[in-house]
Structures are given as C-alpha cells and as structure tokens.
Amino acid sequence: xxxxxxxxxxxxxxxxxxxxxxxxxxxxxxxxxxxxxxxxxxxxxxxxxxxxxxxxxxxxxxxxxxxxxxxxxxxxxxxxxxxxxxxxxxxxxxxxxxxxxxxxxxxxxxxxxxxxxxxxxxxxxxxxxxxxxxxxxxxxxxxxxxxxxxxxxxxxxxxxxxxxxxxxxxxxxxxxxxxxxxxxxxxxxxxxxxxxxxxxxxxxxxxxxxxxxxxxxxxxxxxxxxxxxxxxxxxxxxxxxxxxxxxxxxxxxxxxxxxxxxxxxxxxxxxxxxxxxxxxxxxxxxxxxxxxxxx
Length: 295
Ligand SMILES: Nc1ncnc2c1ncn2[C@@H]1O[C@H](COP(=O)(O)OP(=O)(O)OP(=O)(O)O)[C@@H](O)[C@H]1O
Ligand SMILES: [Mg+2]
Ligand SMILES: [Zn+2]
Fold this sequence. Notes:
This protein has 295 residues and is of the alpha/beta class. Helix content is 44%, strand content 11%. The protein contains 11 helices and 7 strands. It has helices spanning 2-23, 37-52, 64-68, 82-98, 100-107, 154-167, 177-186, 196-205, 222-237, 263-266, 269-275; strands spanning 143-147, 172-176, 208-214, 242-246, 253-255, 258-260, 279-282. The strands form 2 sheets. It has a 5-stranded parallel β-sheet, sandwiched between helices. The protein has a two-stranded antiparallel sheet with strand order 5-6. The longest helix has 22 residues, at 2-23. The protein is elongated, with a radius of gyration of 28 Å. The termini are far apart. The structure holds adenosine-5'-triphosphate, magnesium ion and zinc ion (ZN). Adenosine-5'-triphosphate (ATP) is lined by residues 112-113, 120-121, 150-156, 213, 247, 288-289, 293-295.
C-alpha cells in the first residue's frame, strides 16, 4: 500500500513538474489541491532536500536525524551534521577550560578561588554532586545554600560550581554580600551611575549568581534586604540558579540560653523561605586556613 502511494506520488510529481515547466514556476491561479497533493509535497521536499542539504562544515549529506536534532549547546545554526556539532561543542568547551582562570577572575572570583574545582571535593562526604551540565545542576535545579563555619571551603565550593557554568559556556557572576551592600548604597548617591533596578536586572541576567558570605555584610540596611529579596525571588521564580554561602543557619538557634540569629532574623522570613528551595550543603571540619590553606 505504502509503495503504491509513493509510486502514485512520484508519477504525479513528475507530471506536475512537466506542467510547471510549460506554464512557468507557479501553477495556474485557482488550482485546487488534488488528492495525493500532500504526498507529492512531502516527496518533493525529501527529494530536493536529499540533493541540497549537506553539512556546511564537512560536506557530508545530512540525515533525517541531523535535520530533526534539537538545537544544542552554543551551536544554534542549522545546517551542520551531528558529528560536526559535537566536535564544535567539545572544541568550545576545551577552549573555555584552557582559559578558565581569567574567566573566573573576570566573573569576580579571587586569585585562589579562581582555581577551585569540584574534583577538590571528590573525597569528602558532600562530594557527590549530580552529574549534569554544568556539573551539580540537573534540569530545573535552583542552586545551593552552602553553610558552615569559617575556613571550611564554602567559597571554594561556590567557585567550583561557578567554574562548571563558565566551562559549559554560560555566564556567571560571583559577588560578596558586602559588595552588594556597597553597590546598592551607591545607587542612592547623587553621583550614582546606576539605579537600583539596573543593579537588580544585571544580577538577574547572569545564568548563575553566587552571593558569598550572606550575613557578613556589616550593618544591615533596608535597601540591601529589599535588593536581596528582589534578586532571589526574580531568579528563583524564573528557574535561574543561585549559589549562596553563609555562616548563619536559616533560622535562629538558642544555645545555652543564648539566642543566635539566623537568616530569617538577620534578613527576613521571606528571604529564609526562598532559600529553603535551594539544596543545602553543610561543610564542617577544620578551618583550612589554620591547617595551612592560602587566602
Ligand atoms: N576542597 C578544597 N580543596 C583545596 N583547597 C580548598 C578546598 N576547600 C577550601 N580550600 C582552600 O582553603 C581556604 C579556605 O577555604 P574558603 O575560603 O573556601 O573557606 P570559607 O568556608 O569560605 O571561609 P569563610 O567562612 O571565612 O569565608 C582557601 O584558600 C581555599 O582555596
Ligand atoms: Mg568564604
Ligand atoms: Zn559535518
């Protein structure tokens, strides 16, 4: 049956091409679709495509799989075979990996944290990060809340997560909460070059945002609270991941009759409840700086 349809379509296609040859490119006005026209269209396209569509890089004929491939990675231009797309993605990744230290510095990481990588955590209990691209981020992952005492490697881990984003070809920014406070303060000065909304838009524009040392920004201001609130809700609502590090627990604790405030008390409950969406990683252990670490 299918063979007969193809045969019929082939005959009709030949016939139509001959008609078009004598009448010019377009069929006469008022022509109505005839039975079998859809099959003719499909066959026509397949025949033409088989002749015309060759990979623009290697010249190999494109297969239906190549044509149906969803656009992947940084290669958004159609017309390349899957093998060439894979090779191009791999080349881009290798190149970004070679230039990763300057890229980390440009994203805001310090000299020592610019070298951080997830492999540094492989031997630790919290070293099992989901296999994803970027590593640690499966589809729809909202990000991490990294908690723990001083010097245990929170910033190092946040930067290691950022490294994966940059190597995968995404954009990222690392900023300390203290720097955010300065940035938001500057928007209130007479000589401000940016408005608060522009700062928020910039922070929401990166594929990954790392806010380091939440709770260590010094004097808390309403403007900073509101900025962090807006940035977190905008990013999390739009599934744009964040990585936050902090010495504070999410909610305050009473130990030996003394109350130690957490993020809910230092900022507000709204910020704490948004951070609950993040995957928590608690790092403890000895202070790596005391043990001979660098910065
Ligand atoms: N897994 C690791 N492998 C190698 N070096 C590490 C690792 N974790 C941390 N370090 C190094 O140890 C030092 C302290 O780590 P880091 O700055 O990340 O600590 P921290 O928890 O952010 O401290 P703080 O709370 O004071 O900000 C840094 O020089 C960092 O590069
Ligand atoms: Mg730190
Ligand atoms: Zn090719």
